[in-house]
Structure formats: C-alpha cells, structure tokens
Design goal:
It contains 8 helices and no strands. The chain is an all-alpha fold.
Length: 178
C-alpha cells in the first residue's frame, strides 16, 4: 500500500466521506466514516432530530482533510498507519453474543416499540385524508413526535445513570475461604 495515489482521483474521492480513505487503502477507516456520515444523516431524518445534522459537516471536513493529510505523508509514516474502525479500537466483538444474551429483553422491547411507532406512523399517514378535528390533530402530532420523546427519555435516563457514577464499576469478587 502506498500513499502517492493520483491527485485528481484522491480529490474526487475525498469529496465523499470515507471514500478517500478507502482509495488510500484504509478500508476500515473509510467504512467507519461512511457509516457515521450517512448513518447520522439517516437517523437524524428518521427520528426527526435535525440537530444531529450539525455533526455532518464535522465528519465531512475530517474525512476530506484526513485523506489529503494521508496523501501528503512521507511514505515511511504512511506505511505505519494502522487501519481500524473509528470508535471500536478496543471493542471485542466476540462478546456481542454475551451482551445480547444479558440484554435480550431490553433489545427486544426497544425493537418492538420502534416497530410499533413505525407502524403507527404508516397507518396515520394512510388514514389522514379521512379524519379531521382536534383529537386527530393531537394524535397526529403525538405520533410524529413519539420517536423524539423516546430518544429524549433514553438520553435523560442515560444521563441520570452516568451521574450516579456506578456504571463503570465492576462487581467485586467475593472472597472464597477454603
């Protein structure tokens, strides 16, 4: 892998977050940036949280300048670059099964609630032309904000848990007397 790629292609690839890194041979970094950029945009639109879109320019500029910094590195320094997924450097994915087993009910509840919210929005959109009035408008507004309400509640509960400070402590091992 070498960093002296075609300057024209590097520029055009750097316009899409992650594509420049992938062109330079750092596929994990490129995939991470693409998922972050397009995932945040999609999730922000779906959840009606436009505030998340403020992250998109930051990711775009990071990716753009990162690509050009990689291209301008000396060859020896570029060869020392490790390809890794951003944000998951220390995550052991082999423990995903363990996490899902421990939290299966919570994951199931979240999936069911979001699925019900999506179905409710679909049916409200289909039935909207047939109804009118105060209660329908109230139901319409609640329905279209339910994902925001759920996410806000989750953020508040997560903040409360962090403030309590017990989230980072591991259970103490009991002394075994032989």
């Amino acid at each position: 892998m070498r960093n002296k790629k075609n300057g024209f292609l590097t520029f055009w690839c750097s316009l899409v977050p992650g594509a420049g890194e992938m062109y330079m041979g750092l596929y994990k970094q490129g995939i991470s940036l693409m998922i972050l950029f397009f995932g945040v945009g999609t999730f922000g639109e779906w959840a009606n949280l436009e505030v998340l879109w403020a992250i998109l320019p930051v990711v775009w500029f990071f990716s753009f300048f990162h690509t050009h910094n990689l291209r301008n590195m000396p060859e020896e320094e570029f060869l020392k670059q490790e390809d890794h997924y951003y944000g998951f450097e220390e995550v052991d994915f082999t423990k995903a099964d363990e996490f899902l087993k421990r939290n299966a009910k919570a994951v199931a509840v979240v999936l069911v609630v979001f699925g019900l919210c999506m179905l409710a929005q679909i049916f409200m959109n289909m039935l909207n032309p047939f109804f009118d009035g105060f209660f329908w408008n109230l139901a319409w507004r609640l329905n279209h904000n339910v994902t925001r309400i759920i996410l806000a509640a989750a953020v508040i509960l997560g903040g409360i848990k962090l403030l309590k400070g017990n989230w980072h402590q591991t259970p103490k091992e009991e002394n075994v007397v032989e």
